[in-house]
Amino acid sequence: MKKTIFKKTIAALTSFIAVSAMALPIASGAVDTPTINDKPAVVVATPANTADVTVKKDIVLFNVDGSKILSPNITYSYEITPANVTTATITTYSPDDLESDGKTPKTDAVPITVTVKKGIIGAITTANDVASTANKVEGAISFGAADDANTNNNTVKHNTNKESEATVTLSNKVSGSMTITVDANKIYDPDYGAEGHTNTQVNGPGVYRYKIEDVTTDATLTASGIERNYHTAAGDNDECIYLDVYTKYNANKNGLVVYGYVLLKDTSGKDNAEITYKKDTSEETIKITGFDTDSENEDNYGEGTVDKADLTSDAYHTYNVEVCKKTVGDLADTQHNFPFKIELTNTHKVTSLDDFYYVITKDGSNLDEVKTNLSAGGAWTLDGNTDSNLQLQNGDKIVITGLPVKTNIKVTETNNTSDTYSVSATNLKQPTGTGTDDIILESGEKTGTSLSVASNGTAEMNSTLELKKTDAGDKIEITNTLKDISVTGLLFSIAPFAFITIAGAALLALFMRNKKDNESESKL
Is 317-481 a CATH 2.60.40.1140 domain? Predict the structure, then answer.
């Protein structure tokens, strides 16, 4: 269903002002008049001078074959500033003029219009604010290893969308949030409560609007393997959302309290979004909960899925690779463990320490799963010459899961036997219908798809392989071949001497025969 989302923010103020909120589609014939009580707007049950506003953030997860993955490691940055409102208004009804359902106006009810005010920046705080920037407040939402206290994203594996699927399940994601604290008394008087200060009203009750902008840099997104899917058509402004804070006098009339707030997104009026009862549905002012999947994919609000081509939430695409060992030939030792070296590099120069995991299978049994991460330079190495777990015999393998976009792999095998093996390598998992790819190897100064590698020699991939978006992922198979030798090899070592002996005897017999014939002719 398209446009099953809240389409307007309509508010109904209490005794002093109306409360804003946005309209929801309702059954045919009903009056479309939601109030602040309609979710996801928040009504504070017991109005207080301070209120904590939660702003959500989601990243949708993908994997080539739908395997579970670890969270990307990224910190999103936000700036909160006063919205530059000049003409914004909210038109709604007083709660006293609504029926018991809180939505339907009573007969002859009169709508109320109030003007939205510019937010007071001194009334806003977050955990990540930089005190030196007085004209704005900074915020942050972290994912991955830095987020231990939140959802343990760096240790918990999460469900993903299979890369080839055309429909995205929005619940396959990681989630984070930040808290913005609003102090209504600081709106009332920026110096409220300061030592030696007599509280003086500077700003009265009303609706105050703040702008929350995602200022995460492209470099940060790229370094974390995050793909931003915001629409970039003219008029879109998905990086910004707005916070309307509803205030009224406290009981003593010497300060303000917060009794509700609404997060909203508007792609038409931006800072001056007007929230109007029965607002023209061609305009796009909607109640949201932050930078989360519901809010960013408003055409599918609450439906749980979206066409992949229409996804507007940030996405994290990941890839898998398997390196397996095969030993063939009647003289090949299928139980011998060959040291492998696996090197990962990232052409995006990932600096976010993105987490992934691997499992080594030896002699038919899986070893413990190991969680690890790329280095600050986007690299990672596991060397079987120093880690005996990566010494593989016939049938053994290592499977690495959840690597970020633009990750490349290079594999090197050491022949630590006294025999000379023929070594080849193949990428077995390719897009459907393309078959397999032989991998060029090098050993010393030799290169080719099949090389003779002597004792203590190495065979390494001639170049790195970029992991692909295929259903199966990539599977690199290293094959060592040692064929049986012919038993006639023994004759090769004695044949020259036997040939000389036999030939000599034949020549001697021929000489003696000729000599005898000559002697007979002489007697005649």
Answer: yes
